Amino acid sequence: MNIKEIAKIAGVSVATVSRVLNHPDSVAPETKERILNVIKESDYTPNWFARGLNFNRTNTIGLLIPNILNPSYMEIAKGVEDVAHQKDYTTFLCNAENAVEKERRYVESLMRRKVDGIVLVSSLLESEDVDAVMKQGVPVVLIGENRNISGIPIVRIDCHGAAAKAVRHLIDIGYRDIAIIYGTTPERENMRKIEGYKQVLTEEGIPLRNDYVMEVANTVEGGYIAARRLIGMVKRPRAIFTSSDLLAFGVIDAMRDYSIRVPEEVAIVGFDNIRMSNLIEPKLTTIEKPMHKMGLVGARLLFDIMDSKEEEDTSSREILLQSKLKIRKSCGHRDRIGEIF
Amino acid sequence: MNIKEIAKIAGVSVATVSRVLNHPDSVAPETKERILNVIKESDYTPNWFARGLNFNRTNTIGLLIPNILNPSYMEIAKGVEDVAHQKDYTTFLCNAENAVEKERRYVESLMRRKVDGIVLVSSLLESEDVDAVMKQGVPVVLIGENRNISGIPIVRIDCHGAAAKAVRHLIDIGYRDIAIIYGTTPERENMRKIEGYKQVLTEEGIPLRNDYVMEVANTVEGGYIAARRLIGMVKRPRAIFTSSDLLAFGVIDAMRDYSIRVPEEVAIVGFDNIRMSNLIEPKLTTIEKPMHKMGLVGARLLFDIMDSKEEEDTSSREILLQSKLKIRKSCGHRDRIGEIF
DNA sequence: ATGAAAGCGCTAACAG
DNA sequence: CTGTTAGCGCTTTCAT
User: Fold this and answer.
1) Whether the Cβ atoms of residue B120 and residue B188 lie closer than 8 Å to each other
2) Domain of A210?
3) Beta strands in chain B (DSSP E)
4) Which of A44, A318, B69, B104 fits a 20 to 30 Å CA distance from B327?
């Protein structure tokens, strides 16, 4: 069923049918209604391709996620999708699997499919990759940093501040031997967490120890492995701050295996506040990241840019979101369970 | 940059350029190379719409997931995507959010975008919805049942058998007062689990109690609420089988809040074997569903159908996957920790 | 207010 | 092996 048939049945020209679809006001109410009826009766839908050939836009945006099995990322995705859906846009969700090549392939694929904009989450791409896309007139926004892509609109979390908040809390409740375990990804964010950690220790006059700073894969297993190394040390840390809850789970698991009580013998603070952090025993003290909000804000930023005139310079737009410290049991201070903002 | 310009630069006709893109062998090696060079130099990409207008296919499939925040579903998604990616297909992942209307809207949207096939995960759609799609020549496969959509190719899990396996294990290790908590979704699967549960009890001559069968929302909170009801009963069950791990987590959480020891005072068996079931204390005995495999198998089935001739009747194809019982601590039998196949 | 006709960029017969 | 040409289904001037 195509526009020609509709035109024939309604006894008008294709142009008129096209008009009722695109500029309804420019057609006589009477004929319009007749055509609309025919369209409904024969449940006709305009051909997507023919339409695109003329308009060159698709009401579709691309969304690149590092790992779809990670619910935190999917919360961002949901935020993006919520906004897109509301604007009658469809979202292409792509699973980059933490691989630049895969990410690049997906971006190509998205460009071929003529998406109207792209949201990158913790992207591993280089600035040039992004430039190539934007040069084609497709706006890109970044949610969450990973590497140093500069000159592109971004919404990110104040990781430095959040880490500082966490470490300062540990110091406040009496710990001084504090280790940090961080994942290899997301690179840039984790660097900021380390900076925050180091800054607070330095401010407090606590000497930094290199062996208290460990990098591992950002997985439960990674946390387990790092914890085991920490456990084996002569001077074992009394508190451990991890760059993600997954790592913290691995640490807790290791502690259980080695019969070291949490938080009595070692305090643990995570990062992310994923669902399970509140279900594990002991409940995990952690940083709550506003993932869904990041998605919302990121998507809105993208649509802003898509709607704005070409001339405006949007490259420097940056939105910084704050996160809260959720104090629960794993960091070991009975008197201050609650939330700090 | 379009095909015409390429043709001009290369000094050939558009047809020849088109040919090197679609039937490379039908072009003289020499001209082919020349054209290929021009294409590369000017990084030209064939226009998606023009192409689609002729072919009427997109190398794109649609994938409808009930909830993208649920990692189990995302494992299926990954399986589907793995196959699609390998076949050079792109996947449109849609988050139906357990809502029929939303699902319907997405299917429409996918059809408009001319996807070549659709994978439905635990769909809430009616048979008519699916028929409408298939009538348009777009094949559909279902992964995991939810309602009774019949006459459509499906890959599903033997939930009846799996539940029976779990309950029989509980009986084997000495329990007789066994409750079942099941989520409202996925409807059909959970019905089968109840059947399996009832069948085994009946076979063992254990009288069924209606108040031992509880339906709640399929969430941690749902499990918590149901558990609290169970705790308040005069004759409290000694073992609880839940239709999902999330529910089991809620149950464990409730037991902790009410100081009831698991598994000493109450045994718990979950369903799904999600990541966290192995990290929670006590580690959860559960049914391991081969999610990723379901995705792989489902996608392969879809591609099979897409590749097959129209005439073949594929409507009755059904693939039944078995799942394992993972015996861990929460069901309380020290002597038999391990795996049963 | 409506119709005729010229594309949008590409593919596939059909000739040569 | 290559060029010419007629569409694919739709939108949009340009007439009327």
Assistant:
1) no
2) 159-289+324-340
3) 60-65, 90-95, 117-121, 140-143, 154-157, 178-183, 213-216, 239-242, 267-269, 286-288, 318-321, 324-327, 338-340
4) B69
Nearest CA in chain A to B50: A53
Q: How far apart, in whole angstroms, are the C-alpha atoms of residue A265 and residue A30?
A: 81
Q: Report the pLDDT value the prediction gives residue B310, as an integer from 0 to 100.
A: 64
- Residue B285: Cβ-neighbour burial (10 angstroms; 0-12, 13-18, 19+): buried
Q: Enumerate the β-bridge partners of residue A95.
A: A65
Kindly state whether residues A257 and A181 are assigned to the same domain: yes
CA A27 – CA A229 distance, rounded (Å): 76
Domain count, chain A: 3
Residue-wise pLDDT for A73-121, tens only, equals: 999 999 999 999 999 898 999 999 989 999 999 999 899 889 999 999 9
Q: For B69, which of A60, A75, A256 is closest by C-beta distance?
A: A75
Residues B298/B80, Cβ–Cβ less than 8 Å = yes
Q: What is the pLDDT of residues B190-229, one digit of tens each?
A: 999 999 999 999 999 999 999 999 999 999 999 999 999 9
Q: Model confidence over B111-165: pLDDT tens digits?
A: 988 999 999 999 999 999 999 899 888 999 999 988 878 889 999 999 999 999 9
- In angstroms, rounded to a whole number, what is the distance separating the alpha carbons of residues A326 and A271? 10
What is residue B278's DSSP assignment?
G
Residues A174 and A68 in one domain: no
| DSSP E strand stretches across B185-307 | 213-216, 239-242, 267-269, 286-288
Nucleotide nearest to B32 (CA to C1'): D1
pLDDT above 90: residue B236 = yes
Q: Quick check: is A131 in a domain?
A: yes
Q: pLDDT confidence of B341, banded at 50, 70, 90?
A: very low
Q: What are phi and psi of A125, to 5 degrees?
A: -65, 160
Do B129 and B70 reside in the same domain of the chain? yes
| pLDDT for B82 | 95
Chain B interface residues (partner A, CB cutoff 8 A):
45, 47-53, 56, 60, 68-71, 74-75, 77-78, 81, 90, 92-95, 109, 111-114, 220, 249, 252-253, 256, 275-276, 279-281
For the CA of A16 and the C1' of D5, the distance in angstroms is 28
Residue B300's domain is classified under what CATH number? 3.40.50.2300
In this structure, what DSSP letter does residue B134 have? H
Whether residue A125 is contained in a domain is answered as: yes
Whether B51 is in a domain gets the answer no
If you average pLDDT over every residue of chain B, what do you get?
A: 91
Report the CATH number at residue B29. 1.10.260.40
Average pLDDT, chain A: 91
> What are the φ and ψ backbone dihedral angles of A143, each rounded to 5 degrees?
-115, 115
Looking at the fold, whether A102 and A33 belong to one and the same domain comes out as no
Q: What is the pLDDT of residue A338?
A: 44
Q: Tell me which chain A residues have a C-beta less than 8 angstroms from the C-beta of B56.
A: 49
Which residues of B in 18-77 have their CB below 7 Å from strand C's atoms? 18-19, 21-23, 44, 46-47, 50-51, 53-55
